[in-house]
């Protein structure tokens, strides 16, 4: 009966297929060939069909064997995943790692750190969001995230532990066809001239910075809800704005955007903002969260 199928039989079946013969499969499983042949014969008897054609020098999958191979692989994959998760639960590994990252922080670094974490904790699900300004801190305090990456010095809370990661360079840019972009490189743009043009500004989705503006120099503003929208509006020539250097590097190199040279936006129109890895003081981190922390710290320091 099919209820008598065992995982060992299915694993033996898949191993024989992958190794190419009963003999090679037995060697890979550290068993004698007769035991492997017996396991396959029992599996065939329980399924009521032949999985291999044994008339040739090597066993060849029958049509039925080919059809059931995918099912066998899927079953074994799910069982192995269940075992890994059970082992992780026994070791205190999280079911899920929730992470909210400031939009100024390099996306590629986050992806690389998560990939490194999953090498050791493949059973941990990931919930990832990118939010501007007060978003990461609010997510931590509300319990929506285990970890956060916060940038700048404007969002602090005594309930949150911060670990410095790196400085993120912010640059002022405008589209190549924008009036501010036509200034020659060694001619600094005065703040009064910046104020004559529309500035693209990202708004805070939280109440943490209510009534405050960060880096707003022009009375003319276009306030947008995401950094990608801000980037797109600047590229479209609607106005000028400040963006992280990693996001506009290619646009600057290929001439779509131009750096604005002004002393009012930092030396050489660059300003650095510090990025921190953050977590709640009253919420101890699990193994996967600690592994992500080590990985992102190494990447940021490189």
From TrEMBL:
Instruction: Tell me the ranges covered by the HTH lysR-type domain, including all copies.
Output: 5-62
Q: Tell me the superkingdom of the source.
A: Bacteria
User: What are the UniProt keywords, alphabetically?
Assistant: DNA-binding, Transcription, Transcription regulation
What InterPro entries does the database record attribute to this sequence?
LysR_HTH_N, LysR_subst-bd, WH-like_DNA-bd_sf, WH_DNA-bd_sf
* Cited Gene3D superfamilies: 3.40.190.290, Winged helix-like DNA-binding domain superfamily/Winged helix DNA-binding domain (1.10.10.10)
Family statement: Belongs to the LysR transcriptional regulatory family.
Protein name from the UniProt record:
LysR family transcriptional regulator
The organism encoding this protein is: Labrys neptuniae
